[in-house]
Amino acid sequence: MSTVPSLACADRAGIERSAYRKIDLRIAAVLFGCFVLSFIDRVNVSYAHLQMRQDIGLSDEQYGFAVGLLFFSYVLFEVPSNLAMARIGARKTLSRIMILWGIVSTLTMAVQTPTHLYIARLALGAAEAGFFPGALLFFTYWYPAKRRARVIGFFALAVPVSGFIGGPISGWILHAMNDVGGMHAWRWLFLIEGLPSIVVGVLLYCFLTERPADARWLNATERALVVEALAAEQRGKGNDAASHRFGAALRTPRLYVAALAYTAVPWVANVITYWSPSILKQAGAGNALDVGLLLTIPYTIGAIGMLLICRSSDLRLERRWHWAASGTLAALSLLALPLAMHDLMLTVVVFAFMTIGFLGIAALFFTIPLAYLSGTAAAGGLALISALGQLMGSFAPMTIGHIKQSTGSVTGGLYVVAGVVLIAVLVVLFLIPARVLHERR
Known about the structure:
This protein is 80% helix and 0% strand. It is mainly α and 441 residues long.
C-alpha cells in the first residue's frame, strides 16, 4: 500500500518537482562534479603527451599501450568495487575511489621512463575502478526509469565539461608553467590537476546521503513520494530472478550482449579523449593552448546535442533507436575525419558531430540494462558490463597507436573504430529486443 498521502494531481506534480530539484542538487550535481575531476585526471595524459614524449622517450605505440593499460586494471577491480558498494554504501566507496585516484594522478608527475608511465596508468585504473558504475547504481537508489536517461545524460555531460574546463587549463599549464621551480610543465599538469580530487574525495564522505529514506533535506511527503516511485518500479520488474540476483544474472546471455554493445563507447572515447589533441595539432593547430581552446567547440556542441537526445529518449521511453542513431552518427564522423584533416576548422566540425554521437551512446547505454536489472544483479551487472566493455575497449588506443606507428597515419585506426561502432549498433537493434525493457510511464 502506498505511503504517499492522497494528493491532487497538481499538488503531487509540484511536490515531485520540488523533491527532484533537491535531489538533482544534492546527488546528481555533486557526482557530476566528481566525474569532471575523474575525467580530467584520466585524460590529461593526452595533453601531457605533447611534451612528455620527448622527455621520457615515448613513441606513439608506447603511448597507445600506456593509455590502454588503465583499462586492464580498471576491469580487474570494477565488479568487486560495485559489489562492495552494495554492502558498505556509496559514501565509503566513492570517496575512497576519489582519494586514491587523486593520489595516483598527482604522483604521475614523477615518471621518468615509459615503464614508469605504464605502472602509473595501471595504478590509476585500479584506483578509478568502480566510480562510474557505482555512480550509476547510486542513481537507481534515487531516480525512477522515467527520469533516468536525463540524469545519466547530465552525469555524462561531465565528459564534455571536463574537456571544456580541462582542455584550456591543461593547455595553459603546458604553455605557462615550463621550468617554473625547475620542473617541466607536464609534471606541473599532473600535480595541479590531481590534488583537487583528493580534497573533494574527503568532502564527499561528509556530504552524500545513502538513500531517499535517510534524506532529512527532503520533507516527509517528498521522501514518501520518491520512495514509493522507486518501489513501484521494482514491482514492475516482476519476479525474474536474473533481474535481482547477480549469480543468476551471470547466466543470462543478455548481460554479455550488453557488454559487447558497450564496447563501442570506450572505442569512440579513446579517439576523442586521447587522440584529438594530436589530430588537431596535425590539422594545423598552433600550440597546446590553441589545441585546448579549439576542443571546447566540439565538447560544447556535443553536450547540447546529447541533452536533446536524452530528453527525447525519456519523453518517449525509447532507448534502442536513440542509441542506434547516436552510434551511427559517431561511426559516420569517424569515417569522415580522415577526409577533413586537411582543414583545421573542418576537423573541428567533424569532431563536433562525433562528440554528439559519442555522448549520446555514453549517456543512453546504461538505461538499457537498468531497465531489466535490479538489486545485486544491478550492482554486479552494471560493473561487469562496464568492465567487459572497457576490457575490449582497451585495445582501441593500442590498435590506433600501432597503426599510426606503422603507417604514419591514424586513418586506418579510425576506420577500425567506425567498424566496431557499427557492429555495436546492429547488436543493440537485433539482440536486445524492446520487450525486455520493463519501463513504464
